[in-house]
What we know:
By secondary structure, the protein is an alpha/beta fold. 19% of the residues lie in helices and 27% in strands. The chain has helices at 36-41, 54-59, 102-106, 120-126; strands at residues 2-3, 13-16, 23-26, 29-32, 49-52, 61-62, 80-82, 87-91, 94-97, 116-117.
Amino acid sequence: MSESTSVPQNRSLVTGRTSHQIYVLEDGKRRWIPDLWTMHAIGLSPADLVILDDDELEASELSDAIPSEVPTPELPEGGIIESENDVFIVQDGRLVIVDNPQTLLTGNGFDPSKVTWLPESVIRSMQ
């Protein structure tokens, strides 16, 4: 990780001083990288990260996010999936949002060790 003293070049991996988002610069535009797997898939590494002043980062136009390259996992029927924002149950091979996750706790045989956590970027690619 390094701090910028000049304008980053094309294909630079960048973030801001207070940002939690990581982007790649392409043709002067920044594209959000959704996860580490995708970062590696496009040939970049966290060691390449350049930290910019927030105003310098925001000065570059925001373009489309890079689609996640995380492979879609095989999910068992009835499996429970948790992400940063929601809880899902696998029904007929599809993810169905659980409106009230508390109801899972009252069901017979609920086993918290069987819950699979997936990042939002993977969830979005499955829907």
